[in-house]
Amino acid sequence: MHTDLVAALDIGGTKIAGALVDRDGTLVVRAQRPTPARESGERVMEAVNGVLAELAASPRWGEATAVGIGSAGPVDAAGGTVSPVNVPGWRGFPLVERVGDATGGLPVTLVGDGVAITAAEHWLGAARGHDNALCMVVSTGVGGGLVLGGALHPGPSGNAGHIGHISVDLDGDPCPCGARGCVERIASGPNIARRALENGWRPGPDGDASAVAVAAAARAGDPVAVASFERAAQALAAGIAATATLVDVDIAVIGGGVAGAGDLLFAPLRSALRRYATLSFVQQLTVAPAVMGNDAGLVGAAAAALATRTGAGIPARAH
Amino acid sequence: MHTDLVAALDIGGTKIAGALVDRDGTLVVRAQRPTPARESGERVMEAVNGVLAELAASPRWGEATAVGIGSAGPVDAAGGTVSPVNVPGWRGFPLVERVGDATGGLPVTLVGDGVAITAAEHWLGAARGHDNALCMVVSTGVGGGLVLGGALHPGPSGNAGHIGHISVDLDGDPCPCGARGCVERIASGPNIARRALENGWRPGPDGDASAVAVAAAARAGDPVAVASFERAAQALAAGIAATATLVDVDIAVIGGGVAGAGDLLFAPLRSALRRYATLSFVQQLTVAPAVMGNDAGLVGAAAAALATRTGAGIPARAH
User: Fold this and answer.
1) Is B171 within 8 Å of A169 when comparing Cβ atoms?
2) For residue A107, how many other CB atoms are within 10 A of its CB?
3) What is the CA radius of gyration of chain B?
4) What ipTM did this prediction achieve?
5) Rounded-to-10 torsion of CA B122, B126, B130, B132
6) Residues contacting A235, CB < 8 A, separation 6+
7) CB atoms within 10 A of CB B13
8) Is the confidence at residue A3, as pLDDT, over 90?
9) Using a CB-CB distance cutoff of 8 angstroms, which residues of chain A are in contact with residue B161?
10) Which of B146, B167, B245 lies closest to A241 in CB terms?
């Protein structure tokens, strides 16, 4: 019976969340600050320190035996640094060392945010019991992570599973990453909205031109809106099928705002998956909605830290 | 010091090769039969038994402690069966059980042929020393395998790394597998030749319309032939970049007849890789020609068996 806690940090371009997480995945103490994303690297670190100080003020802080960090990427787990696209003040920022210093030398595990949500879904969510799984977030961007052979697979860099930036359309539209036809360039929320607008869809009186509004239009029968979701689903299917063909996962768990569109996304996705996942060993591949919600990043950061410490995959398997 | 041997089988649509392989990867005894690919499953098994009988006639057979099989795919490692596309008599054929019976109950490890060549290149070839690698064969088809975290990664089915059938062109040409725009549909030898012919290249007086002839024409400056190799290189680059982005490999080793074209393939491939492998953690990705040659399948089948027995990745790491 383990009674220790893990301090978890979930670092994104909008907020820095922290928690003390117990061995059941329960968040027993929480703290949060906005990310001063346009300010200097030191100012961003001050916000992290503020979150950690708030956690350290808890009477249970003394039970914390490790820190897990899930950060917007890319990260460099081997070097202990982060360079989040949306936090320009942090380029090669030595986050692991700084958090170690701030917590009196606790061991620190760093993974990308896609890897963190994967750890959460595998520990307690929709990928539980699956030894080989892809978990994704389809939202403003498209991220992901992998479970292979029963264990979280962050890869040496901590970024493995970065499905948003694999090309499924090698002659396709340029992606901000520099490549063409990336899954994110076709399937993210902003790109679903962009494509609908380019093809003639117009927002209603409230002026909402987001993917949420496109989803509402699609539900009301607008064919351009429906087609934009279908195209996103096709790109996701090609990317998921590629992943399964490469590493033999049997489930893809999908969360994030775009997944919130429900059957509008999942029905054409399942249909397209039949067309792209053709080899015998991937034909049983299934997709499922994520279940861990907004706390996935924190729960997953804790899970990643526990997995690293035990060397035995997700904590549920180490009990 | 280990002195035992492994019996290795390399099963393809043309030939069934066998060997006794020592712990240094040396083939100490060899045997080979043509594959009666159009005959019944039992006739094909008779050829396998013939190869095994020839090995068993060696005075060193008694030292064999395991059997490794690399087979044309798809395979089902969990079920112990094979269904090679080019051997229609074998559909769900229980090869592991049959080879176990034929060898007096030796433990049998089954992997796909792409996984086998990967095991060989990692053990003794161009991927040696790389803990995370993709190895490929680009020939009549396109196959591959993965090394992750220092160990061969066959996946639960034994087919992981099947890069030939990931789609890099989701609206592209139909592939015989049922999907569209697969790497193999663009980059295999027959497709390099097909594309050159479709775009106006014509074979010389000898009538040779193979990728080898296209390569000769490209070296002589034929722009259509050059373009066909460049397109193959682009598809390979997109597929390799996708693999690195998903599982964080730092090298792609490429063998097979098309790789024999040398710089005609590798120069545009390296150039295209810069365009598709854009994220920070994959920018150091390199490509290298395979070095293990025709024995890669046998050496790799032995390596896979040793890796399974020691549970410690490739045998070189277990010494």
Assistant:
1) yes
2) 14
3) 20
4) 0.93
5) -70
6) A168, A169, A183, A186, A187, B170
7) 15
8) no
9) 246-247
10) B167
- Pairwise CA distance, residues A15 & A292, whole Å: 18
- Residues spanned by CATH 3.30.420.40 within chain B? 5-112+294-318, 126-291
For domain B5-112+294-318, the question of CATH label 3.30.565.10 is answered with no
B236: distance to nearest CA of chain A, Å? Answer: 10
User: Using an 8 Å Cβ cutoff, are A69 and A97 in contact?
Assistant: no
Region B222-237: mean pLDDT is 98
Cβ–Cβ below 8 Å for B177 and A279: yes
Q: Write the secondary structure of B34-47 as one string of H (helix), E (strand) and C (coil).
A: ECCCCCCHHHHHHH
Q: Give the residue among B120, B32, B33, B28 at the shortest CA–CA distance from B68.
A: B120
Asked if A165 and A141 touch (Cβ cutoff 8 Å), the reply is: no
Q: What is the mean pLDDT of chain B?
A: 94
Query: In A, which residues are within 8 Å of B146 by CB distance?
Result: 246-247
CATH number attached to the domain at A5-111: 3.30.420.40
Q: Is the pLDDT of residue B116 over 80?
A: yes
Q: Indicate yes or no: CB of B279 within 8 angstroms of CB of A177.
A: yes
Burial of B207 (0-12, 13-18, 19+ CB in 10 A): exposed
For B58, half-sphere exposure in the C-beta direction (CA atoms, 13 angstrom radius) is: 20
Angle B211-219/B189-198 helices, nearest 10 degrees? 60
All residues at 6 or more sequence positions from A208 whose CB lies less than 8 Å from its CB, including other chains: none
Contact A95, A81 (CB under 8 A): yes
A126-291: CATH number = 3.30.420.40
Q: What is the largest CA-CA distance in chain B?
A: 60
